[in-house]
Amino acid sequence: MKTLTRLQARPDLVIGVAVLLTGALALCVPALSWYACLPLFVGAAVTANQAIARRGPETSWIPAAASINFYEGTLVYENTAGYATDIINGGANFFVGVAKAQQDNSSGSAGDLNVETWAEGEFVMNYSGTAAQTVVGVKAYGVNNNEVNITSSSQSFVGVITEFISASKVRVRISAWRGAAT
To answer: Average pLDDT of the chain?
Structure first.
């Protein structure tokens, strides 16, 4: 720091303002015997592309169960132990999303790899049985890791059907949240 000016707002609290070597201002407050400074980014305009690390609500990372190969575009569930699986287990496992890419944990232990899933969005899915226009607006349930239908018995909720495409294809709006049943 180049300079440190003490501003006394109250007798029991001393706050400082520092000018950092870069010329940026910082707000400093006493912490034990030193000052903790928080930069005040004033006039620090960006002049180049910035790498952004982002994981929004539309994606999720789940530790993979042992001995499973997750294929891109398949339905992913969370088992009662908290690991990603491709098995619905009679509806006991919660739907957590659609696999963004293949993740092969077929020779690994539980938690060795993480599966990245899309947890929100609309996806064209295979329909188990014969779909018709009447299924639009109806809840979709996972039959396995590749198909949905509208039967809730012993199956996991996946989302709501938003479009009838053909007798074997529908578009489903998913909104998967770990550990939440619908």
So the answer is: 79
